[in-house]
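Quick start: what a row looks like.
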Amino acid sequence: MSNKIFLNDNLVDIEEAKISVFDRGYLFSDGIYELIPFFKGKPFLLEDHYKRLERSLDMVDISNPYSKAEWKDKIDRFTKENDYKNFSLYIQITRGVPSDFSDGIFREHAATKKYTSSVTMFTSEIKGFPSFAPKREKAIILDDKRWLQCDIKSISLIYNAYAKTLASRSEAYEAILVRNNNITEGCSSNVFIVKDNVIKTCPKTNLILPGITRSFIINQIIKKNNYKFKEENFSLNELKSADEIFVTNSTQGVIEINKLDDKEIGNGEFGPISKKIYENFVESVN
């Protein structure tokens, strides 16, 4: 099953999957996506991920191609034969292909025609999670040059991909983004700092993607375990002077950042709060 993808209600070999070059997702990145983690074959926070999918579709005025019940049935049917124990399900929905080309117009910025959406799903194995201790990784710092509607899970990810590539070339896991001297998020993660035993992360605005794992860790781990916590903006200097830094995402849960550009964070050992939150998260998915 791992070599199959779901494409417009059909299961297709990955080598045979084809989408029209006139699909607006291809021409304009006119679409949204969602990524749902599965641990031990079970979806994690499926309802929350579905709500975000609906919200993103609504925010870009793309009609949902399926009902909620149809989505759940299609996801279940597609993933139940999956070969992996822990994996992510990628879902992409584009505005699609014009139903009529008789006017001879093959590409136009405005979505003025009737379109048939393109729906794609495929799975990827989640490797290295969960393990005994959280990963400790390097991050670099870059200016946040993305558009101002980062709360939409848009497939338009060119700057995210570019920044992540720069991070990879620096042997770093993540690029942490800064806008107007405030930290926003990572290219594919939300950012938390710890200073004097207080955990801080920036609030949900249009400048960050509302991470599902982020919300779970805040509401089900940080608050329930009575960690000291502030949801407010923090500066680049606060990031650099933090006692601990960790990032959260759907496929790895919690990753501690132990090096920022060329600066070591902390005392060279696992941050006690980052480690405990990771352990709390692992307990919740086991």
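That is the whole record. The chain has seven helices and 15 strands. The helical segments are 24-28, 46-59, 68-79, 158-169, 212-222, 236-240, 272-285.
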